[in-house]
Design brief:
Layout lengths: L18 H12 L11 H21 L7 E4 L2 H15 L6 E5 L4 H12 L3 E5 L9 H7 L4 E6 L13 H9 L3 E4 L19 E3 L8 H7 L6 E4 L3
Parallel strand pairs: 1-7, 2-3, 2-4, 4-5, 6-7
């Protein structure tokens, strides 16, 4: 088979919609077009049932304790805002310090800058030349006022999967929360979601290649925000 030009080489940013997704969604773009919040007629009931079924499947994939923990948003940026601002607001009585890294994506950085203007203090931890986080740098940044550690894992622009497992237990002991933003999560690379207060992710980046393996390795977090772009 010959090459088709131009060649798209930015699959870390987005990907074509899986034909199976298109096939599954087509009825809801044409015949089953009811609004899931419309609970006074069959069209809405049918749409609500479909959303609930989708939520249950994703909950199984990521190992959530309850499908109700998932919150669908319009995209990754909204999911990140919901997670970061939500945790900051919830724990502001305990402290105002947040730890993140210098190479987070723009959606996260913009949110942290906004939180700083609201009185929160944010420490931006540097990374090593290969993009991997030194866990000790995370530990050094923690204070008695730390309420949140937020790290994107893995990045959408660099290759390393920046797993921060050793640091995940530290905030729990200090009474704070950890919030990763896995823009490209995969069932092949389990995210131990029981360690996190919230997880935000984009629909195009979720892989269902091995949902059973992932579900066995996770037990769920208290809250999740899933950005749905398609």
């Amino acid at each position: 088979m010959g090459l088709k030009f131009p060649i798209f080489m930015d699959a870390q940013s987005t990907t074509p919609c899986d034909p199976r997704v298109v096939e599954a969604m087509l009825p809801y773009f044409t015949e089953k077009f009811g609004h899931p919040a419309s609970r006074n007629h069959p069209f809405g009931w049918e749409a609500e049932g479909a959303v609930d079924a989708a939520r249950a499947k994703i909950a199984t994939l990521i190992g959530a304790r309850d499908p109700k923990e998932l919150v669908f948003t319009s995209g990754g940026t909204e999911a990140i805002n919901l997670a970061l601002k939500g945790v900051a607001e919830m724990y502001k009585e305990k402290g105002n310090h947040i730890v993140t890294t210098v190479i987070e994506q723009r959606a996260s950085i913009d949110t942290f800058k906004r939180l700083e203007r609201q009185g929160f203090q944010v420490t931006y931890v540097p990374v090593q030349p290969d993009g991997v986080i030194d866990v000790e740098e995370i530990r050094k940044a923690l204070t008695d006022k730390t309420i949140l550690i937020s790290v994107m894992s893995p990045t959408t622009r660099s290759a390393p999967s920046r797993t921060s497992r050793p640091s995940a237990s530290s905030p729990r002991r200090r009474g704070s929360s950890s919030t990763p933003t896995p823009r490209r999560p995969s069932a092949r690379s389990p995210s131990t979601s029981r360690r996190w207060a919230s997880i935000s992710c984009r629909a195009p980046r979720i892989s269902s290649t091995a949902p059973r393996a992932w579900a066995r390795s996770t037990s769920g977090a208290r809250a999740r925000a899933c950005g749905s772009r398609r």
